[in-house]
Amino acid sequence: MTTSVTRRGAQLVLAAGVLLCATAQAQTTVYKCVDAQGRVEFTDTGKKGCKALDLPGYIPAPPQRQGPAPSALRPSNAPAAAPAPSPSNFPRVDTSQQRARDDDRRGILNEELRAEEQKLAELRKVFNNGEPERQGNERNYAKYQERVAGMRDDISRTERNIEALRREIANIR
């Protein structure tokens, strides 16, 4: 008698858990399986002797589509779908206005490039070919090495910024 009460309690707990946990909805069908010894198992794979459970509030996942992909259905000589045209009320910029915007952008990027190049020159001057002057608070050689490594990182970052700015300027029409 206690075994059936325990099974019934386990079933109720499982059902209550599924009902109460709305955020964790199952994505497949839940099956109740009873083996030859009378042990109950809940699984998502249907086996011999298993019964699909009807769980209230359960929304099954859509069935997996079998068959070829949509692109495989189209004959090879058929043209691909043309991109959707932009709406007629889509804002357009005339050529002269776009050229002025590109010139402004080029000017801003050139200013940034000059600033980064000046920063790189100052960093290299202070770096002194890998042997910057030691500061008073750097009695410990490890502190000095840490500062030198940070300087190398700053120089490397600035060089990458300069390369990126030059690429961006080259991409402007």
Description:
The protein is mainly alpha-helical and 173 residues long. Among the domains are: 7-11 and 24-60, no CATH class; 95-171. It has helices at 2-20, 70-73, 95-127, 141-171; strands at residues 31-34, 40-43, 50-52. β1 (31-34) and β2 form a beta hairpin. The longest helix has 33 residues, at 95-127. The protein is flat, with a radius of gyration of 35 Å. Mean pLDDT is 78; it is low at 22-26.
Estimated helix fraction: 40-55%
Characterize the largest beta sheet: strand count, sense, and whether it forms a barrel: 3 strands, antiparallel
Catalogue the unreliable spans.
22-26
What would you call the structural class? mainly alpha
Number of strands: 3
> How far from one another are the termini?
85 Å
Mean pLDDT across every amino acid position: 78
Q: Specify Rg, calculated over alpha carbons.
A: 35 Å
Strand order of the largest sheet: 2-1-3
Spell out the helices and strands N to C: HEEEHHH
Q: Strand percentage, roughly?
A: 5-15%
Using the alpha-carbon principal axes, give the shape. flat
Task: Count every helix, treating DSSP H or I runs of 4 or more residues as helices.
Answer: 4
Give a brief rundown of this model.
Among the domains are: 7-11 and 24-60, no CATH class; 95-171. It contains 4 helices and 3 strands; from the N terminus they run H-E-E-E-H-H-H. It has helices at residues 2-20, 70-73, 95-127, 141-171; strands at 31-34, 40-43, 50-52.
Descriptive keywords:
single chain; 173 residues; mainly alpha; three-stranded antiparallel β-sheet; 50% helix; 6% strand; flat
